[in-house]
Amino acid sequence: MSRVNRRLAFAVAATAVIAAAVVSNWTASRHDVRGDPVRAPIEFFDGATGDLADFAGTPVVINFWASWCPACIAELPDFAEVSRETAGDVVFLGFNVQEISLDGAMHLIEETGVDYRLVHDRDGALYREFGAIAMPATVFIDSDGLVVRVHNGVLFADDLRRIIESELLS
Questions:
Q1: Spatial separation of the C-alpha atoms in residues 140 and 149, rounded to whole Å
Q2: pTM value?
Q3: Alpha-carbon distances of 148 from 129, 132, 166, rounded to whole Å
Q4: Distance between CA atoms of 41 and 22, rounded to whole angstroms?
Q5: pLDDT tens for residues 91-140?
Q6: How far is CA 92 from CA 14, 30, 69, in A?
Q7: Buried b / exposed e across 104-143, counting CB within 10 Å, b at 16+?
Q8: I need a surface site. Which of 14, 61, 65, 148 has the fewest CB within 10 A?
Q9: Which segments within 25-130 are labelled E, that is strand?
Q10: DSSP code of residue 34
């Protein structure tokens, strides 16, 4: 299967997940995060801890992903590419959600070329707090530490660049 067909198949699958969530009237229990200053303790894969507020002053892109998510696998190389292109201007963080084994997560990271910092979201609490309803999900936080967009579903490089340019760097 070609790369384009594979991406299309993953995008269709992700759309089906979003549609199923809407049809079943499922919503995450959370407050509306758009416009709220972001403070949340985080634990990195390397064992270090911090807070999302530590990144104030620089725009942040948070990508929620898991090794069991085909749509996540499809978009991770594009996130790696755009993170390298915007290095120094935008911080990328990969939040691994409800992973059974970190071995699978690390294998996927090596395979896809992701080299930005990775965070554990073991129980999916941050995923839910940001109002994500699909995998993958991406949160865009401006340099003032305010959530400006939560995108549920797949993002590939061109759309990711467009959102970063219009929402974070304009």
A1: 5
A2: 0.80
A3: 15, 14, 11
A4: 30
A5: 999 999 988 778 888 899 999 999 999 999 989 999 999 989 999 999 99
A6: 22, 23, 19
A7: ebeebbeebebebbbbbbeebebbbbbbbbbbbbbbbbbb
A8: 148
A9: 41-44, 49-51, 60-65, 91-97, 117-121
A10: B
Q: Structure tokens of 24?
A: 């079943």
pLDDT at position 96 is: 96
What pLDDT shows up at residue 20? 38
Judged against a pLDDT cut of 70, whether residue 78 lies above it is answered with yes
At residue 88, what are phi and psi to the nearest 5 degrees?
95, -25
Tell me, what amino acid is at 145? G
With 60 as the cut, is the pLDDT of residue 26 above it? no
CB of 62 closer than 8 Å to CB of 30: no
Burial class (CB in 10 A: 0-12, 13-18, 19+), 58: middle
The amino acid at residue 131 is: G
In whole angstroms, what is the distance from residue 88 CA to residue 59 CA? Answer: 10
